[in-house]
Specification:
The complex is a heterodimer of chains A (225) and B (209). Chain A is of the alpha+beta class and 225 residues long. Chain A has 2 domains: 76 residues; 128 residues, Jelly Rolls (Sandwich), CATH 2.60.120. Chain A has 5 helices and 14 strands. In chain A, the strands form 5 sheets. A 6-stranded antiparallel sheet of chain A has the order 3-4-5-13-8-11. In chain A, a hairpin with a 2-residue loop joins strand 3 and strand 4. Chain A is globular. Chain B is mainly alpha-helical and 209 residues long. The longest helix of chain B is centred in the N-terminal third of the chain and has 39 residues. Classes of the chains: A alpha+beta (225), B mainly alpha (209). The complex binds zinc ion.
């Protein structure tokens, strides 16, 4: 049962295309598994589209074009578009898979065309970077071997985890595929996965380890981020 | 507190209801144009869609992107996708405005990503699948298709509907491929598929409720 959902503001920014690719993909992975949010997204899309294309927002009617739009030759554009009679066929593509530590996973649809680096391992963690080039926002796939976990930590920035497969638990409870877990510096947690799992993670700063052996754990913070 | 509530109520009372009626006529008109483009490559219908949407898209894109040249690129790309992908629009699943909005949103997203992150990847169609609006009912129905032995039900359909259903679901051909394969207009394939699905749903509903 999914218990953790994106906020309304985040769903709205998803619909308007205002989230970075990393977070938009996170919402998409969640919505694939969450009927509730999928319905909410459909409704929001309908409403936002309606408002965006309202005629009263639009003083510049075609044929009565104001100075502002003079530089765009609509007639020319229309002719260009119609001169090509082909249509775009959508081919069903075979879902890509990724193998982390001998565990094969099917990539979520939102990630089908994302470039993913080869994986690196520390202990029971295995991480593959998703190359989105979004500056300080880093995106990864994180596989936890059965019995593994991430040491107690908090967050310098935000940390989004979307559970793709398997399950894990932390101080706040147990998580299931589709759970959308957005945390920040107010949260301290120690996720462990008994059966193993795959997470899609997005963070904008390294994790900060809160127990006494900081120096030993800091590399893991940079590893996960 | 009270004042706020009253304002909200008066907004709903005064403007939304009458407008919804105008809208529904407009929505039907827009949908009809899109369907004509899909089924007949109707250039006149497309030019009506273009007149309605292009100036609005230009305004929205300019607000979002700032640059006039890039905003005009969004208009060009969006309207060109509308022309080339109209067959993916399903009037039963949503308004034409919703569909065009998603096409515009995706074009804008990929363009901004190219500008900001310098990436040439096209992620939008994966992040926002074009069939997203339809997800709920169809999935349920596909489960029925997969989990039940429905060949016997399919064989009760007229031959021409059987062809389309079998091609679409068992051979995983797209509607366009079927149209080519059978030498029929896309519109005919669509309407046969729609008819066949309606019959199947009725039959399966009766069998499995
Ligand atoms: Zn949800």
């Amino acid at each position: 049962m999914i218990k953790h959902h994106p906020t309304f503001e985040m769903l709205k920014a998803y619909v308007t295309g205002d989230l970075p690719a990393s977070l938009a993909a996170g919402v998409s992975i969640h919505a694939d598994k969450c009927d509730e949010c999928r319905k909410q997204i459909a409704l929001l899309t309908e409403q936002i589209a309606e408002v965006s294309f309202e005629p009263e927002h639009d003083p510049l009617h075609f044929g009565n074009v104001s100075d502002e739009t003079m530089s765009v030759d609509f007639e020319q554009m229309l002719d260009n578009i119609c001169s090509d009679d082909s249509i775009t066929l959508t081919k069903p593509t075979e879902a890509k898979t990724i193998t982390l530590r001998d565990t094969p996973y099917q990539l979520p649809r939102a990630m089908q065309h994302m470039e993913i680096s080869s994986s690196a391992n520390i202990g029971k963690l295995s991480r593959a970077r998703v190359m989105l080039d979004e500056g300080e926002i880093h995106t990864s796939l994180l596989h936890i071997e059965p019995g593994g976990g991430v040491p107690m930590h908090t967050h310098n920035g935000f940390e989004l985890t979307v559970l793709v497969e398997g399950s894990f638990t932390d101080e706040m409870g147990e998580y299931f595929p589709g759970d959308f877990i957005m945390l920040d510096g107010q949260h301290v947690h120690h996720p462990v996965s008994e059966q193993g799992c795959l997470c899609y993670t997005v963070a904008n700063a390294p994790q900060k380890f809160t127990q006494g052996i900081n120096k030993l754990l800091n590399p893991i913070g940079n590893f996960i981020y | 507190m009270m004042a706020v509530r009253q304002i909200n109520l008066s907004v709903i009372g005064s403007s939304v209801t009458p407008k919804a009626m105008n809208d529904s006529a407009e929505h039907q008109q827009l949908s009809q144009w899109l369907i004509s483009v899909a089924e007949q490559r109707d250039k006149l219908a497309f030019s009506e869609l273009f007149k309605f949407f292009a100036p609005k898209i230009l305004r929205i894109a300019k607000t979002k992107i700032g640059s006039e040249a890039q905003a005009s690129e969004v208009v060009q790309e969006t309207m060109s996708n509308v022309w080339r992908k109209a067959h993916l629009f399903d009037a039963q699943k949503g308004a034409a405005t919703t569909w065009v909005y998603t096409v515009m949103r995706n074009v804008t997203f990929d363009l901004l990503r190219k500008v900001k992150s310098n990436r040439e990847d096209t992620l939008s169609d994966d992040i926002w699948p074009i069939a997203e609006q339809s997800a709920a009912d169809d999935e349920l129905f596909e489960d029925h298709l997969a989990s039940n032995n429905i060949m016997s039900v399919i064989e009760t359909l007229p031959e021409n509907q059987q062809q389309v259903i079998k091609g679409f679901y068992f051979m995983e051909m797209s509607q366009e491929q079927l149209a080519n394969h059978l030498g029929l207009p896309l519109g005919t394939i669509k309407s046969r598929l729609r008819l066949a699905l309606a019959k199947l749903k009725a039959q399966l509903g009766a069998d499995h409720d």
